[in-house]
Amino acid sequence: MTKFFLMTLIVSILICPQEGYANIPSASLNSGTQDKALSEYIKKFNFTSPVKDSSKNLPLYELGRELFFSTKMSLAGDISCAHCHHPTRGTGDNLPLAIGTGAEGDIAFRVQGNAGITTRNSPALWNRSLKSVKSLFWDGRVSFHKNENYVMTPSELLSGKDPILADVAKEMINAAAAQALFPPTSTLEMKGPLLDGEPEDIVWNAILENLLKEENLRSFFSFAYPGVEELNIGHVGKAIAHFEEIEFFVNDTPWDDYLSGQKEALSIAEKRGAILFMDKAKCAECHSGERFSDNSFENIMIADIGMKEAPNDMGRFDVTAKDEDKYKFLTPGLRNISQTAPYMHNGLFATLEEVIDHYDHPMRTLMHFNPEVLNERFGKFYNEKFVRSWDREKVKAQFDNKSSKLAMNLRLTEQEKEDLLLFLEKSLTSKKIK
Description:
9 strands; 37% helix; two-stranded antiparallel sheet; disordered N terminus; mainly alpha; Cytochrome Bc1 Complex, Chain D, domain 2
């Protein structure tokens, strides 16, 4: 037995969760005890209900909606933002890995066709247009610096306090406004082969020209930006971000009612699940605050999978080049989490039950995940099969750089898993979703 595997075995056996309310027998956790415990955890993890940063600007919202659903955002002409972030699919596409331009079928049912496949899952959009959101994309390559009101992006043209395209950058009111500008420049995602190799400003100008050819869209722009003579791609990003801010804003869950003082908003079982979330299961170590995300990047030992071959996706490291960021990915928010499957940066888990099982014993995922489960569930959408190239050195590197917040052996009981699942599925879901 190698030292590495001996070490992992010892860790899995010895590491136990800390003591807390979640370790008190369930029978003794009456409603009063639960409320007292939750009150303490709410303060500890700074749980609050989100508040919109701005009121609805109807002309800007309407323009953003038109742009969000328009294939004119794609120089290839066959894909919109909504194809990968559809409102009826939890603002995602319900696929493990996103399908880019060139797919067959309509927005309701797309299969790969001639399209390429990205290496990552389409992230949900709920509450991501708040100014408190510091980073977007799974690797955080777009970030918003609220205090000094500037963005950092993959393009130096928009980045920093004194960007080259200052007229565009001033429209970047949050991270979402900047993020919206980059999928349309991607050959794989939305652009197609047109203007390959050209700088972003050339591509953005072509997209804007493509949009303004439509008389209908020109009218929406004129209403949203009266008096603006020179439109730029920043006006596009700002409008889309405002639409997302209004349309995908969530603060009406049973949990939000509970935060407002309605103790009966959660059942006894949901309260047990909430306490587990914040104590024994350690979820709140990262999923805290108004969005159930602390905006951190964590390595939770997710196995790499891909089509034809599995990438060595090192996440945040690709942005920072810091060794400590290898295999770290952005912590997502959790409101409406019941609607946003599959889960993780590569869609590894199709259900929340699988997510809970992973956190119960993450080494099991890293060592033994079999991509055939993905082929059985999602194979009809793709030309190729999901594969995993099991590489001992990569697995060891992922283990060695795992998050300090990740427990290796929670030892959740079946009842605890059921309570935790109930909290995630019911307490954090908007009452608008039936």
